[in-house]
Amino acid sequence: METFLPIAYLQNRFLPFEDAKISVATHALHYGTGAFGGLRGIPDPQKPNQVLLFRLDRHCQRLSSSAKLLMYDLPASQIQATLIDFVQKNKPTCSFYIRPLVYNSGLGVSPRLHNIEKDFLIYGMEMADYLPPGGVTCRISSWYRQEDRSLPLRGKICAAYITSSLAKTEAVESGFDESILMNTQGKVSEASGMNLFIVRNGTLITPGFEQDILEGITRDSILTIARDAGIPVIERAIDRSELLIADEVFLCGTAARISPVKRIESYPLPETRPITTLLRDKLTAITEGRDAHYQDWVFSIPLSA
Question: What does DSSP assign to residue 1?
Answer without folding.
Answer: -
